[in-house]
Amino acid sequence: MKKKGQNIDQVLDYLFVHGQLCEKGFDPLLVEAALEMHQCSEEKITELLQLMSQFKEMGFELKDIKEVLLLHNSDQHNALEDLMARAGAS
């Protein structure tokens, strides 16, 4: 409720979508991050979660994943290049 304010409809929508995505097997932390980034269609959020899951499986940190996906408008190729460059620099 802290994230959605006191609007009960928004809170219920958030919880419903969160539950559905978790039931599909996505990591709850990734679901929460995706919902923070994109509060649009479930389809767009599912696509974003698939990218986030792939990058997390590759060993990248969630904060970096979120940052590059926002920076590159969820473009997989550019986001991955950025993540690889960051990994090489550290």
TrEMBL record:
<dbReference type="InterPro" id="IPR000551">
    <property type="entry name" value="MerR-type_HTH_dom"/>
</dbReference>
<dbReference type="InterPro" id="IPR015940">
    <property type="entry name" value="UBA"/>
</dbReference>
<dbReference type="GO" id="GO:0043130">
    <property type="term" value="F:ubiquitin binding"/>
</dbReference>
<feature type="domain" description="HTH merR-type">
    <location>
        <begin position="47"/>
        <end position="71"/>
    </location>
</feature>
<protein>
    <submittedName>
        <fullName>Ubiquitin-associated protein 1-like</fullName>
    </submittedName>
</protein>
<dbReference type="GO" id="GO:0043162">
    <property type="term" value="P:ubiquitin-dependent protein catabolic process via the multivesicular body sorting pathway"/>
</dbReference>
<dbReference type="Pfam" id="PF22567">
    <property type="entry name" value="UBA_9"/>
</dbReference>
<dbReference type="InterPro" id="IPR009060">
    <property type="entry name" value="UBA-like_sf"/>
</dbReference>
<dbReference type="InterPro" id="IPR042575">
    <property type="entry name" value="UBAP1_C"/>
</dbReference>
<dbReference type="GO" id="GO:0006355">
    <property type="term" value="P:regulation of DNA-templated transcription"/>
</dbReference>
<dbReference type="GO" id="GO:0003677">
    <property type="term" value="F:DNA binding"/>
</dbReference>
<dbReference type="Pfam" id="PF21267">
    <property type="entry name" value="UBAP-1_UBA2"/>
</dbReference>
<dbReference type="InterPro" id="IPR049467">
    <property type="entry name" value="UBAP-1-like_UBA2"/>
</dbReference>
<dbReference type="InterPro" id="IPR038870">
    <property type="entry name" value="UBAP1"/>
</dbReference>
<dbReference type="GO" id="GO:0000813">
    <property type="term" value="C:ESCRT I complex"/>
</dbReference>
